[in-house]
Amino acid sequence: MKAFLPVLLVLSTVSTSVWGQETAEKDKLRALIIDGQNNHSAWPQTTMMTRSYLEQSGRFTVDIQRTQYTWKGGQLLQQFPLEDGKTYQDLEQPKPDPDFKPNFADYDVVISNFGWKAAPWPESTQQALERYVRGGGGLVVIHAANNSFGSWDAFNRMIGLGGWDGRDESSGPYVYLDESGKVVRDKSTGKGGAHGPAHEYRLVVRTPDHPIVRGLPSAWMHTKDELYQQLRGPAENMTILATAYADPKYRGSDRHEPMLMTIDYGQGRIFHTTMGHDAVSFSGVGFITTLVRGTEWAATGEVTLTQVPQDFPTPTQSSAREFSVPEVR
Ligand SMILES: [Zn+2]
Fold first, then answer.
1. What are 10-31's pLDDT values in tens digits?
2. Ligand 1 centre and the CA of 277: distance in Å?
3. Over 90: is that where the pLDDT of 301 sits?
4. Structural domains of the chain, with CATH
5. Which of 9, 193, 204, 245 could serve as a FRET partner for 87 with CA atoms 20 to 30 Å apart?
6. What's the gap in Å between 40 CA and the centre of ligand 1?
7. What's the CA angle centered on 231, arms 227 and 235, to 5 degrees?
8. What pairs with residue 90 in β-bridges?
9. Residues 6+ apart with CB under 8 A from 235
10. For residue 30, with 0-12 CB atoms within 10 Å meaning exposed, 13-18 middle and 19 or more buried, which class applies?
């Protein structure tokens, strides 16, 4: 890869960022995507989509680190290869990787594309992530990344809310908004995490002054996706940026469920989007915009990528972008 770097630099300086700006190479934020084990088999592609969106913003350089034992990668691992010279084994079941030890401290922000049933990381890696975030690092949690590691206490505090993997009333309350927009912390018993069939649904901004959503329309249609509901967790120092109404027509909870959240953890910042089930969901312009802005906010506490894309969805009409892997990297 290193041999191609000069070519990449040239290309990146002549490319026009869709965000209308380009940060000098040396000032770019350093992002690390971590993945390898996720029940959502689209993950090799959605990792590449995430990398591509962040790089196209002109604001980030992106590395990817993957567990050597992968799960559910399948054919997409060939279609969207890492080409990092390392050897990976795609297994029938998730398996702990004792060598998965990213140096989180090298990055401004870490993005988890792990999912349900991801095997536990080495304890030293768990501690390193907690130390990194507590010390001021950024973390981004996408969709099923909030299914991982149900019994890891610090992780649950970092993500605020999660689902499945044994989560129940002992994990913390259900958190949602009522009709008046008031946050409800519901301690009733029951499992954490559910969703009905995927469908298009409307995001409603609840904190219009937050940098991640500032200047965006107050509501927009999201492309077809699962609508996560009845998540539960400690939900400490958590701000709900946007919700979606979980319509009983789609086996919904009849509640306004948190879709975009931020969590403060020590000196660190977490951006959590519950959306992003598959490549279609990842193609939504509202998803892309908030993912990129949220990643910048997690990295720095600010958002400079304030331009609202021309193809941003309206309250009644979703909007998606075609995705293809850039030919030269
Ligand atoms: Zn899903």
1. 333 434 456 666 788 889 999 9
2. 4
3. yes
4. 24-300 (3.40.50.880)
5. 9
6. 6
7. 130
8. 70
9. 160, 161, 172, 173, 175, 185
10. middle
